[in-house]
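Consider this:
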Amino acid sequence: MQPNVWCLACCSRLASTRPPDPVMPSIFTRILAGQVSGQFVFRDDLWAALLDIRPVSPGHALLIPLYETQYLADLPAPTLAALGDRLARLVRAVKTASNADAVNVVINDGPAAGQEVPHAHLHAFARFPEDGKRMAWPATPYAGGDLNIWADRLRAAWR
């Protein structure tokens, strides 16, 4: 364990954290630390879920890592490894509690993607056949050999 290293989110000593960033903490970190109130669905040593205060639909919940970083890919391996289980359980809870037909899971990974809070998080919200909500954006098919070019670029970037 590293001496005097504090987790910004839960205020406990953890070897997998880093020193505080002067730009942070985010509102989520302050909620996780108990400095700002929030309605928690669950909390464990890596993840917490709480209700979004501007819900798309009732029961709209946020899945937030206790480790503070802006981008999902920058989370520590143990936090990422636990994501699948926590997300599946949250989706099931949102769907069950709202009696929804379906659930959208959304990640806005960076400001250009619409991320408003610089702390990685996922949204889970209930959907119904006639709810009038659309998540559509204009799609542009690949031209010529662009599909193969982009496949090659992504394979090269895969780590």
